[in-house]
Amino acid sequence: RKEVEQDPGPFNVPEGATVAFNCTYSNSASQSFFWYRQDCRKEPKLLMSVYSSGNEDGRFTAQLNRASQYISLLIRDSKLSDSATYLCVAPGGPNSGYALNFGKGTSLLVTP
Amino acid sequence: DGGITQSPKYLFRKEGQNVTLSCEQNLNHDAMYWYRQDPGQGLRLIYYSQIVNDFQKGDIAEGYSVSREKKESFPLTVTSAQKNPTAFYLCASLKGPEAFFGQGTRLTVV
To answer: Which residue of chain B comes nearest to A105, CA vs CA?
Structure first.
């Protein structure tokens, strides 16, 4: 089983829509999780961290369900500029130098 | 400003050649990583280094080599043994749980 799994999409939504991405992780000992945003042909950039049950930042809400080992990202009032790939990330352990484990990404396209 | 600098941005390699990708950081981070990304794929760990003069293989180290002679520098060599090197290569450092990335090097075999 992969460390982090997420629905690859693509998700095509109109401007103003609400969209949710889901992610599952395999290491029950993981304490913190992240959502990174990656634009086409660019490096990933940190969008949000999730340390407890959830985190909200403007239009973005990340939630964590430890019992189900499940993380979600909700984007409200989608903007054209939200079009990107969203990567779900869990921390690795000492056997990998604590390297972050990345999901394959969920592609979002917001249309006018 | 502090950050990670990767060079070159684009690199073309002929069959059988070794090429070296540069990664420099001025963040004073101990841990550095090399990832490879193929289209539609997530990032896969090639090598990592937690301290100067020490590095470890990641999940896909075959055909690659690294060095860590200075804290600031973690170059990656793609050797001729790597049969499918065309990919986007990302260097990162870690501070606590957060990763900081360079802008990446896009390597193409011609």
So the answer is: B42
List B residues 12-51 in contact with A (Cβ-Cβ < 8 A): 31, 33, 35, 40-43, 45, 48-50
Q: How far apart are the first and last CA of chain A?
A: 38
Q: How many CB atoms lie within 10 A of CB B1?
A: 3
Residues of chain B in contact with residue A87, where contact means CB-CB under 8 angstroms, are 42-43
> Which token pair is A40?
């086409």
C-beta atoms of A45 and B45 within 8 A: no
Q: What is the pLDDT along chain A (112 residues), one digit of tens a residue?
A: 578 999 888 999 999 999 999 999 988 888 889 999 999 989 999 999 998 878 899 999 999 999 999 999 999 999 999 999 999 999 888 888 888 899 999 999 999 9
Q: What angle do CA A40, A42, A47 make, to 5 degrees?
A: 95
A33-to-A18, A52, A73, B41 alpha-carbon distances in Å: 22, 9, 11, 19
Q: Mutation test of the interface with chain B: which of A32, A86, A100, A106, choosing the one with the most B Cβ atoms within 10 A? A: A100
Distance CA B85, CA B68 (A): 22
Q: How far apart are CA A52 and CA A58, in angstroms?
A: 18
Of B3, B87, B72, nearest in space to B40 by CA: B87
